[in-house]
Amino acid sequence: MKADTTHIMRDEIREQPQAIRDTLAAEGERIAQFAARLRAEQIRHVLLVARGTSDNAATYARYLFGVVNGVLVTSVAASLFTVYDAELDLGDTLVLGISQSGTATDVIDVLKRARAMGTLTAAVTNTEDSPIYEAAELALLTRAYKEHSIPATKSYTTALAVLHRLAAQWAQDSEMAAALNSVPALMEQVFELEPQIEDHSERYRFLDTCVLLGRGFNLCTAHEIGLKLGECAQVVPAAHSAADFMHGPIASIQAEVPCLLIAPEGKALGSMLELAMALDERNAEMLTISNEPSLLEIAKVAFELPTGMPEHISPLVAVVVGQLLAYHVAIHKGLDPDRPAGLQKVTRTM
Amino acid sequence: MKADTTHIMRDEIREQPQAIRDTLAAEGERIAQFAARLRAEQIRHVLLVARGTSDNAATYARYLFGVVNGVLVTSVAASLFTVYDAELDLGDTLVLGISQSGTATDVIDVLKRARAMGTLTAAVTNTEDSPIYEAAELALLTRAYKEHSIPATKSYTTALAVLHRLAAQWAQDSEMAAALNSVPALMEQVFELEPQIEDHSERYRFLDTCVLLGRGFNLCTAHEIGLKLGECAQVVPAAHSAADFMHGPIASIQAEVPCLLIAPEGKALGSMLELAMALDERNAEMLTISNEPSLLEIAKVAFELPTGMPEHISPLVAVVVGQLLAYHVAIHKGLDPDRPAGLQKVTRTM
After folding, report:
1. What pLDDT is stored for residue A89 in this prediction?
2. Which domain holds residue B253?
3. What is the pTM of this model?
């Protein structure tokens, strides 16, 4: 496979700005109505259920609803219900399922059980009239349209956009809501980094494992970039919160294991700087996705993000660097990123 | 370093049965009183806060309190409070901190904030009169006594024992409570596997990454064995829930990356069997810790657990295999498991 062959995944990465514009234009009003209902019903807890890429969107929502809406957010293991038949007390709770295909069997099962108990249920999905529509009381639809490549890209960032808008409307924070409108243009700025990402990717032709590090709002970005590297490029990903990483896993870091830090400006930046110092002392191969000069300077390979983004929208922008990185490492490895060995677009687990 | 040199870590692994007996004898009554209070106060949610090994104990508690007590359990990122100053609604909630040293700064900070809001707070710790005693209203003390080796072993399994007893007493389930008393003898049976673990460890002399897989009650075991391999043996661990793993990361598995499955009898076994089949198709190097004959047979390297354990106590027994594995891989690599490069016993994060 030649490096100049084009793949659906790359096209879909580049469709993200328009998909986000379409999602906000088409679904904005329904999101606002649902946010009003969350206020009216005085929802105090959100229970998230999701798998794979959608579970990384759920990780974003944990910080978002916690910080912006002050509600307790639980990312529940579906197995609590589907394997162990736990009977949870779900008063004042929204159960929110996320599934791009709308067919994740365990997510649907949890939604159905919760709804049968009289709990408020909703879904975020990219597939109109999919089975999740019957399971949840309300479905919010992302407008990523059909995603053909197996690694999810535009269905992930549009799900993040829906969650962001929902949190902002729920908190009636119009400044926050407006910030999301700048994401498409910021993503387009990231596309300009592609030649540089392609060049640097060759260095990782023989990479077999990679540590991904983020904190707070961008913990999801670390997990999602790791997942893309695993799916497209046969790199075993080890994603950690920067804080947890300092409590043990850092001991396993040698110069041969690259560490990718996702560290845009914001409240989590202090921890990320501290971590970068510790990794530098260990002579780690450090890659950074950042807009903080000292983090760009300390890295072996640095990808510079646009400046001036609020931290809460940065996960939608930073992940694009990682999507392109996973794509180009796959190409250098001679792999087909659109059809990773042994994966299907829809995975069913009970 | 010769393989016959003895280390504190190995002694501490072998002290676990007595530490659990001591913990239950000394703390049983206080646990029962606290469980009565949880019932009296009609606690409906548990918010767990912990780091490192203690965070793996928290993962155990997520399943335990969910399945046994029917409460919603959230493993909260301390950064929600310490970095983002989120103001969460914590009515009907127990905030439970876990810290063997009793000095984890972010755990203490979250406990103090919750207590100042009038929320019920408690701690599980191995260090009497440590700062966590002042932060939480009540501290439950494990009797692992001083742990000298940096990788935590006995402070982990005694914390699991306290959490198990608390869940059983809270549910007033005397059969469940009694099951825990069999753990010390079951651990002693696992010690008999040590010559076999030592032999097999040589195979992993040049191992640099390892995938750890569990589900449900033993998801914590996958994470904890991964952490030990990282701390002692410079192996980059990638731990996943078996269900999440099928949604993407499995694509990165080649024959060169060993996959360790923790799969004792119980409700999660079906998923683990399914996963083993998928890994076998990919010619993965599979290791299993199990008491299910078909999982012992399919593996390249199999460690046989005692049979007849209820699933809810199996994490205390299965982890011992992994502690010994991490220890012996470290010895084969010529590393000192007691003092991993660049780690301290107590890590402070804000």
Report:
1. 82
2. 184-332
3. 0.90
> CA-based angle A59:A65:A66, to the nearest 5?
90
Q: Which of B49, B84, B344 has the highest number of chain A CBs within 10 A, making it the mutation to test binding with A?
A: B84
Suggest the residue from B83, B92, B96 to mutate for an interface test with chain A (most A CBs closer than 10 A). Answer: B83
Helices (DSSP H) in chain A: which residue ranges? 8-14, 16-40, 52-69, 79-82, 105-116, 131-135, 154-170, 174-179, 183-191, 194-201, 219-233, 242-246, 269-281, 293-298, 314-332
How far away is chain A from the Cα of B306, in angstroms, using its nearest Cα? Answer: 22
The reply to whether A266 and A314 lie within a common domain is yes
Same-domain check for residues A50 and A156: yes
**Predicted pLDDT of residue A198:** 96
Report the distance separating Cα B105 and Cα A239, nearest Å. 23
Which tens digits make up the pLDDT trace of A289-318?
999 999 999 999 999 999 999 999 999 999
A130 with A158, same domain: the answer is yes
Q: Inter-chain contact A257–B278, Cβ cutoff 8 Å? A: no
Q: Provide the pLDDT for residue A66.
A: 93
Tokens 């295909």 -> residue: A101
Cα-Cα end-to-end distance for chain B: 37
What tokens does B155 get?
Answer: 């402070």
Domain boundary among A181, A216, A245: A181
Domain-embedded: residue A131: yes
Can you tell me the ipTM of this complex? 0.85
Q: What is the CATH number of the domain that holds A54?
A: 3.40.50.10490
Chain A residues whose CB is inside 8 A of the B84 CB are: 63, 66-67, 216, 267
